[in-house]
């Protein structure tokens, strides 16, 4: 097994630029089954003091994507998790990371409003890559949310979208990170996706969690090369003109009039859903955020 992993990583280093059954969590669960070894001890030592992110980013900038994942695994041990949206190009990060950490907890926030194609794509990748998938959902059902707040995505204002994102995405993600004892989080953000992501480093801090961005400097051609090299699939909606996909009501195919791919999300009202910035701690804080801060 180790030989196969080493071979896979050697291929990845040449490509990238310089199943457990899922469980759905509406509440907390017992994490005592997770093993605690030398890696976790090392992580505790590292995290007892705050990391010098500026200096560390200078070092990490010299690593390729696979090397950064390996560094994260060695540094944070079992307190390292990753997230996925099962979006257009999600197979890249899922494959890249699981070559290094086959059993890493993979957090998927299921809003209850994802396209049918996303659920099928998630099942395909979970089976193919043997993902240790942790599915989290809001404790408020879609029907109850709509009864109490209306169709928040149809109200054409940022405050309503922020409320939607907090209920369906941010709160479940906060709970997932807490349940899993996460101290660091691997995310597949790329700098050319949004203005906020252009400001990120290879490692950043979001609330009390460290964020690692292995493919931050990648462009679409790098993603395409990785997918084709390892025969990995795009999301099915890519063939229908989607370049990014989230909930069915807030995603659409890209047109010639769109300035960038994120214009196809949230009716152009904002670029971020809230998961990859400062996570609001309360609903009131979520309501106060504007489009540039999410």
Helix content: 25-40%
The CATH architecture designation is 3-Layer(aba) Sandwich
Strand percent estimate? 5-15%
N-to-C SSE string, H for helix and E for strand: HEHHHEHEHEHHEEEHH
Provide the spatial order of strands within the biggest beta sheet: 1-4-3-2-5-7-6
CATH top level is: Alpha Beta
Q: What are the segments in which pLDDT stays under 50 over at least 5 consecutive residues?
A: 18-22, 27-45, 284-294
Q: What's the shape?
A: globular
Q: What's the total count of β strands?
A: 7
Protein name: Phosphoadenosine 5'-phosphosulfate reductase
Enzyme class: oxidoreductase
Catalytic activity: [thioredoxin]-disulfide + sulfite + adenosine 3',5'-bisphosphate + 2 H(+) = [thioredoxin]-dithiol + 3'-phosphoadenylyl sulfate
Keywords: Cytoplasm, Oxidoreductase
Brief descriptors of the model:
294 residues, alpha/beta, Rossmann fold, 7 strands, 11% strand, disordered C terminus, phosphoadenylyl-sulfate reductase (thioredoxin) activity, oxidoreductase, Rossmann-like_a/b/a_fold, EC 1.8.4.8, PAPS/APS_Rdtase
Q: Layout of SSEs?
A:
Layout: H1 2-15, E1 20-25, H2 38-47, H3 53-60, H4 65-76, E2 80-84, H5 90-100, E3 105-109, H6 116-129, E4 132-136, H7 142-149, H8 158-179, E5 184-186, E6 203-206, E7 209-212, H9 220-229, H10 283-288
Parallel strand pairs: 1-4, 2-3, 2-5, 3-4, 5-7
Antiparallel strand pairs: 6-7
Folded structure, characterized:
This protein is α/β, with parallel strands linked by helices and 294 residues long. The chain has one domain (2-293): Rossmann fold, CATH 3.40.50.620. It has helices spanning 2-15, 38-47, 53-60, 65-76, 90-100, 116-129, 142-149, 158-179, 220-229, 283-288, and strands at 20-25, 80-84, 105-109, 132-136, 184-186, 203-206, 209-212. It has a seven-stranded mixed β-sheet with strand order 1-4-3-2-5-7-6. α2 crosses α4 (65-76). The protein is globular. Pathway: Sulfur metabolism; hydrogen sulfide biosynthesis; sulfite from sulfate: step 3/3. The active site is at 273 (nucleophile). Catalyzes the formation of sulfite from phosphoadenosine 5'-phosphosulfate (PAPS) using thioredoxin as an electron donor. It is found in: Cytoplasm. GO terms for molecular function: phosphoadenylyl-sulfate reductase (thioredoxin) activity.
């Amino acid at each position: 097994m180790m030989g196969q992993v080493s071979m896979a990583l050697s291929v990845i280093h040449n490509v990238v630029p310089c199943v457990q059954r899922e469980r759905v969590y509406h509440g907390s669960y017992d994490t005592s089954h997770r093993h605690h070894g030398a890696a976790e001890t090392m992580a505790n030592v590292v995290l007892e003091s705050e990391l010098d992110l500026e200096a560390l980013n200078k070092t990490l900038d010299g690593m390729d994507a696979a090397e950064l994942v390996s560094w994260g695994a060695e540094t944070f041990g079992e307190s390292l998790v990753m997230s996925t949206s099962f979006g257009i190009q999600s197979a890249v990060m899922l494959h890249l990371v699981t070559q290094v950490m086959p059993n890493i907890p993979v957090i998927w926030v299921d809003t209850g409003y994802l396209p049918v194609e996303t659920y099928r794509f998630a099942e395909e990748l979970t089976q193919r890559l043997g993902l240790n998938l942790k599915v989290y959902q809001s404790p408020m059902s879609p029907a109850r949310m709509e009864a109490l707040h209306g169709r928040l995505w149809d109200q054409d204002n940022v405050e309503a979208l922020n409320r939607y994102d907090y209920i369906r995405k941010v709160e479940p993600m906060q709970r997932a990170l807490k349940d899993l004892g996460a101290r660091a989080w691997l995310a597949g953000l790329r700098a050319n996706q949004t203005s906020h992501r252009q400001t990120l480093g290879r490692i950043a801090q979001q609330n009390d969690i460290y964020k690692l961005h292995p493919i931050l400097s990648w462009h679409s051609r790098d993603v395409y090369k990785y997918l084709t090299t390892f025969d990995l699939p795009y999301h099915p909606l890519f063939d229908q003109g989607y370049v990014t996909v989230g909930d069915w009501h807030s995603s659409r195919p890209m047109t010639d009039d769109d300035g960038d791919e994120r214009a196809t999300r949230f009716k152009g009202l904002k670029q971020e859903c809230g998961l990859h910035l400062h996570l609001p701690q309360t609903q009131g804080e979520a309501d106060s955020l504007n489009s540039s801060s999410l």
